[in-house]
Design a protein that fits this description.
17% strand, 427 residues, alpha/beta, Aspartate Aminotransferase, domain 2, seven-stranded mixed sheet
């Protein structure tokens, strides 16, 4: 069977097996553009609609159960229905919500984050990683009095801060300059041209949406050096990579940025974001100071996120759990590399974040990626048929609920897919 025919068959099987999800999608399309309010979750011929979740498993409207390897793009670190998170949320609900006032858990959560992340001397909360990055950039331009922000190809810092192959029309109008990720020579040239007006260098220590591509430690060290030299603020977007150790990639590598942004699991799986860093930078938000800068947000300190975030970090994700999760991901990727050897599959990632690509390796920056939409779609549909839920783009983010049993089963599923590859040639 050719690749085209295999893909046609996979699409037909998917549509036949999921009539309830198809109906839900068509109903949603009456009121949501394309039946969707989160573009990343959409795929053809229609996306699955999940009815429930428990542990590391999802169940869709048609009654199919899947191992959840996506982990809500790293936000679902604690899995589904964890009793510790549930208990914290229920206790918070018992005390009422929407105080419109301070609550005790916000200070406790802030203390834990500042203890863990080397760069965080002071921190403030937001409602998402997108918002955290927006506030971090606003902080940098205000603090430095400059206007230029250096970002990197393939980066995703939120829904209005996206830097793929072409300009993203919804991006906020900062004065962005873009360099190639992991390319010191090109980055040096860009910094040299804009040094006098450079307010911030914003970087993901591992490109998340860009393909789970780890930064070379020497590349991040160079950014630290040039930020010091130019007076720009180095901002690590650790919205995803904070899970790599108890103190994120900055602790793992021993490279401390001026500011850090957080989100995803650090709110216990609830709506959450945070930005913080050096005390002299963050002091501008101290309302006790004359001339302070106001930072508001109705739900910045909502009681559910504060309670869930504190419980998760202190009870479920101590340093030992962070190390174990990192090691499990490394073992899984090593096994997948062995299965993929000599095939069109290439796995990238670090720790519990990994992505499958199709084409020649190695892949160290977005310019190394080769589009293979048919193979990518076939892989996604094939994994769903085998009972594994992952991102349409091939991304995996392990939760604490994933054990060696699920990893073994996934490796068997990928091996099954690979075994069929030789006969699946494009027409």
């Amino acid at each position: 069977m050719t690749l085209d025919k295999a893909l046609d068959a996979a699409r037909a099987r998917f549509a036949e097996d999921n009539p309830a999800s198809r109906a839900a999608h068509e109903e949603a399309a009456a009121h949501l553009p394309g039946g969707n309010t989160r573009t990343t979750l959409f795929y053809q011929p229609f996306p699955l609609t999940m009815a429930s979740a428990d542990g590391c498993r999802l169940t869709d409207l048609d009654g199919h159960t899947y191992v959840d390897l996506l982990g809500d793009y790293t936000a679902g670190l604690y899995g589904h229905n964890n009793p510790v998170i549930r208990g914290a949320v229920e206790a918070a609900l018992d005390g009422g919500w929407n105080y419109g006032a301070h609550g005790p858990d916000e200070a406790r959560l802030a203390a834990v984050l500042c203890e863990r992340f080397p760069s965080l001397e002071l921190v403030r909360f937001t409602n998402s990683g997108t918002e955290a990055n927006l506030l971090a950039l606003a902080t940098a331009t205000t603090h430095t009095g400059r206007g230029t922000v250096l970002v990197f190809t393939g980066a995703y810092h939120g829904s209005v801060l996206s830097f793929g192959d072409s300009a993203f029309p919804l991006n906020v109008p900062h004065r962005f300059v873009v360099a190639e990720y992991n390319d010191v020579a090109e980055t040096a040239s860009v910094i040299d041209r804009h040094a006098a007006d450079l307010a911030a260098i914003l970087v993901e220590p591992v490109l998340g949406s860009g393909g789970c591509l780890p930064a070379d430690p020497a590349f991040l060290a160079y950014l630290r050096e040039r930020a010091d030299e130019t007076g720009a603020l180095l901002i690590f977007d650790e919205v995803m990579t904070s899970r790599m150790s108890a103190g994120g990639m900055q602790e793992l590598l021993g490279i401390t940025p001026d500011m850090t942004t957080l989100g995803k699991y650090t709110g216990g799986g609830m709506t959450f974001g945070a930005f913080g860093g050096r005390a002299d930078v963050m002091a501008m938000y101290d309302p006790r100071r004359p001339g302070h800068v106001a930072h508001a947000g109705t739900f910045n300190n909502n009681v559910l996120s504060m309670a869930a975030g504190y419980a998760g970090l202190t009870e479920l994700f101590p340093p030992s759990a962070a190390r174990a999760l990192f090691e499990r991901g490394e073992r899984l990727r090593t096994r997948l590399d062995a299965i993929a050897d000599g095939t069109a599959l290439v796995w990238t990632g670090l720790g519990s974040m990994l992505t499958v690509h199709f084409g020649p390796g190695p892949i160290t920056s977005p310019r190394d990626l080769r589009p293979a939409p048919a193979l990518r779609e076939l892989f996604h549909l094939d994994m769903l048929a085998r009972g594994f839920h992952l991102a349409r783009r091939g991304m995996i983010a392990l939760s604490l609920e994933i054990t060696d049993t699920e990893c073994d089963a996934f490796c068997d599923a990928v091996a099954g897919f690979v075994a069929d590859l030789p006969a699946q040639r494009p027409e």
